[in-house]
Amino acid sequence: MTARRVACGLWLAASASACLSERPRPAPPALAVVLQATAVHSTTPNDTLGGSVRVEDAAGIDSVWLQVDGTTAAADGLLAPIYQSPFRVAIPAGLAAGTRVPVSLAARDVVGFRSQSDTFVTVVP
């Protein structure tokens, strides 16, 4: 009878510790935008803003959107846990010096969680 009690006690202890262990929780995708410059010129029509984006989510990435000054580019995440890509976007001519050009990265994972990261670059003469 004592061996049964010991075995039962060990089973209960193992079950309790399994219930108390930390497990991964669902969360929105982690986003990163790396810009090649924080200032751009708007006097020439061919100035561009370049950089790279990285999105990471253990559940898998459904979609990624990058928006620069109202121009949006979208990509399919192909359900991969990591999406990474370089980008280059034209900056319109004629913006006044000191203007902040918004840069926004958004993503949705396969569970439906969304996240967004916003920054900007400044127009210089």
What does this structure look like?
The protein is 15% helix and 50% strand. A hairpin with a 4-residue loop joins strand 7 (100-109) and strand 8. The radius of gyration is 24 Å and the shape is elongated. The protein has 1 helix and 8 strands, in the order αββββββββ. The protein is an alpha+beta fold and 125 residues long. The strands form 2 sheets. It has a 5-stranded mixed sheet with strand order 2-8-7-4-5, with no helix packed on it. The mean pLDDT is 86.
Major sheet size, sense and barrel closure: 5 strands, mixed
The number of helical segments is: 1
Give the neighbour order of strands across the main sheet: 2-8-7-4-5
Computed over alpha carbons, the radius of gyration is: 24 Å
End-to-end gap: 88 Å
> What is the share of helical residues?
10-25%
Strand fraction equals: over 45%
Class from secondary-structure proportions? alpha+beta
Average pLDDT: 86
Shape label? elongated
What is the tally of beta strands? 8
Low-confidence stretches: none
> Could you spell the SSE succession in H and E letters?
HEEEEEEEE
Please outline what is shown here.
With 125 residues, the protein is α+β, with helices and mostly antiparallel strands. Helices cover 15% and strands 50% of the residues.
Question: Helix and strand layout, with pairings?
Answer:
Layout: H1 2-20, E1 30-35, E2 39-41, E3 48-56, E4 61-68, E5 71-76, E6 82-90, E7 100-109, E8 114-124
Parallel strand pairs: 2-8
Antiparallel strand pairs: 1-3, 3-6, 4-5, 4-7, 7-8
